[in-house]
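Students often ask what a holo structure prediction actually looks like on paper. The answer is less mysterious than it sounds. You provide the chain, you provide the ligand, and the output is a string of discrete structure tokens encoding the 3D arrangement of the protein together with nicotinamide-adenine-dinucleotide.
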Amino acid sequence: MARIAFIGLGNMGGGMAANLAKAGHDVRAFDLSADALAAAKAAGCLPIDSAVAAMDGVEAVVTMLPAGTHVERVYADAVFAAAPPSAILIDCSTIDVATARRVAEAAQAKGMMAVDAPVSGGIAAAKAGTLTFMVGGSEQAFRRAEPFLSAMGQAVIHAGGNGAGQAAKICNNMLLGATMIATCEAFVLAEKLGLKAQTFYDIASVSSGQSWSMTKYCPVPGVGPETPADHDYQGGFAAALMLKDLKLAMQAAQDAGAATPMGERAAELYTAFVGEGQPPVDFSGIIRTLR
Ligand code: NAD
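The corresponding structure tokens follow.
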């Protein structure tokens, strides 16, 4: 079993670090929050009082941080300063493709191997160890990261070179944001045309309008499997995080010169929804504003 530094023990990282400890690894955990550190300790990790100290003698470094700026800072101040050059560096945060590539290049310049490995699946999947990881990096780096990722997820897929994991993540979530809005619109129009939500679901879920947003994550309460819609849009995937991913997708589209008009519109609609100042809700709650 390996010694691992785990930096960022929030909603997602807390459960992920716990699963590495459960798999028998020696997890050296650090977060700026004392509460997060205490929870990691209770879950079998060893709390450490600085990111630099957590790097001592590790085989792997896992980061699960809010955004690219946090990742760059932790890499510059702690990982590159104190991790052994042989450690495999695994960033699971959702960040922009450009930063992911920059961090990997900096690692390479120091003779270190790095992968970007963002996740699909929310807090419950992080806790249950059923995340999907999409991994960007060399074949060799992927092979080294894979056993650690497998202890935290049920699918680990090599997407390509550095940045490819983040590219897959934001393309997937751009598609999800746009299909969720389209699904909400279809239900609202169906209602206004006199169709019962259940009837429309029964038809569309076996017709060409079918999507994950409809059959696995239906935005209408009481229809389809249990979803955040059945709990007043609490839990699930926060609309603010969907907006974060859509903004990353729009930045990437601009940088790559790709036309993404539906993604742009989805970003506008989620910007308006999140900006309404209501308490945090699941991203399927956008149906409320369409109504
Ligand atoms: P979070 O805000 O709950 O956790 C982030 C943690 O990082 C916090 O505990 C914070 O204290 C810590 N942190 C910030 N800067 C730090 C530093 N310099 N050193 C040490 N710790 C630091 O966020 P989260 O929901 O766990 O999300 C983490 C990442 O996962 C984000 O990039 C997010 O987009 C992505 N993600 C989240 C979900 C979800 O459902 N929450 C799903 C998929 C992907």
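The radius of gyration is 20 Å.
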